[in-house]
Amino acid sequence: MKTQELFTILNDHKDKSLLFQYTAGQIVPANYHITEVKHLKIDSVDCGAQMDSWNETIIQLWESPSEIGKTEFMSCFKALGILNKVGEIKAYDLASEVKFEYSNSLFHTAQLFVNDYEIHGNNLMFNLAIAKTDCKAKELCGVVEPAAATANASQCAPDSGCC
Length: 163
What we know:
By secondary structure, this protein is an alpha/beta fold.
């Protein structure tokens, strides 16, 4: 989901409570706060020596230990107010991918992308998911997808031009 789409959805549902499902059946508790917004510029070089760059918006969610047991979730209106205030200080790249950074005692810190969202009565729920790592230079390095892979284990050998 792009940052602009996030703002549009929040704006369209200002009256709703904002929930996040970070893994199947697990919702970020109501004691969460938006504690940081990161504007990242990624400059990368993949294992095929190809350069790439893009921007990301990372919104950090944190569970306040002093509010454990809280039952009322943050409203979309309040979240939008926080995010708009950040935008007044540091402008967003509205075309950038938005991710949510989250962890708790049972879930490792992760940057989660928005898989989709749902409306349940007075709740707007973003369903978050983890992106698996991947080789961006498969074709250049001669990497075959596992379903079609043969028993040849030397496809990305040290001298193949792929790291």
